[in-house]
Design a protein that fits this description.
This protein has two domains: about 5-180, no CATH class; about 180-229. The protein starts with a helix and ends with a helix. By secondary structure, it is mostly helical. Helix 6 (about 105-135) crosses helix 7. It is built from ten helices and no strands. It has helices at about 5-10, 10-15, 20-30, 40-55, 65-100, 105-135, 140-145, 145-175, 180-200, 205-229.
Length: about 230
């Protein structure tokens, strides 16, 4: 999967160490084994592996290097998916959409400024720490505790969505649907509790999302047809 990219990242080390053709072949073959992790967290592993390859003497066993790659790629994939795909990117998207709804032209820039610095820092600092610590490069990712930060980012995103929903109910949809603000708020709360109950019953969130889209499209179509009469 990502083995070609990993082997390509080792090429500067090959030129630096001035290995023999046989040693180069063995090293590239070693790093062309299956490798797959979160792309942003691959750099700490690359840093650790580069340092271990530099410190390894030709007669020493290379299995500890392969063990580091195999033992870290799975946990790093889970950590990266949880934080970047499951927390940071949705958070950046939510606040960019809010800025766009408010009419701010800098909404796309807002997404970039929220999302890019975090993953760029993880990638750069992760490589440097991995290279500095070698086999102990995992301490950097363990110390910053991305799963714990992901929980806070999700709550921050939820607060943003709640604030946006409150503003829309108060200023946008009460007149459109002909209900009072209190009645519409209670209806929204009922929908949220229904979705929560469906999730607890094991219904896929994707099915709930598509169901909500279909329901809202039907409601919108009914309103359009009624407006023509």
């Amino acid at each position: 999967m990502q083995n070609l990219g990993f082997a390509f990242a080792m090429l500067p080390l090959l030129r630096e160490k001035k290995m023999s053709a046989r040693e180069e072949e063995e090293m590239l073959t070693r790093h062309l084994q299956m490798f797959n992790t979160h792309p942003y967290l691959s750099t700490p592993i690359i840093g650790s592996v580069v340092r271990m390859e530099e410190d390894r003497r030709p007669e020493e066993d290379a299995s500890p290097i392969a063990a580091v790659k195999q033992s870290l790629m799975g946990p790093y994939a889970a950590i990266g998916d949880t934080f970047f795909w499951g927390a940071l990117r949705p958070c950046a998207g939510i606040f960019a959409v809010i800025m766009a709804w408010l009419g701010w032209l800098v909404a796309p820039l807002g997404f970039v400024l929220i999302y890019v610095p975090a993953h760029f820092w993880i990638r750069l600092k992760g490589f440097l720490e991995g290279y500095r610590r070698g086999k102990q490069g995992i301490e950097f990712i363990r110390r910053i505790d991305l799963p714990h930060i992901a929980v806070r980012v999700r709550w921050f995103s939820l607060a943003g969505l709640a604030g946006c929903g409150f503003w829309l109910l108060r200023n946008g949809y009460t007149t459109a649907v002909g209900l009072s603000w209190i009645a519409l708020s209670l209806a929204a709360l009922a929908v949220i509790l229904l979705c929560w109950w469906l999730v607890k019953k094991g219904i896929s969130q994707i099915y709930i999302l598509y169901g909500a889209v279909v329901l809202l499209m039907v409601i919108s179509l009914i309103e359009v047809l009624m407006s023509w009469k």
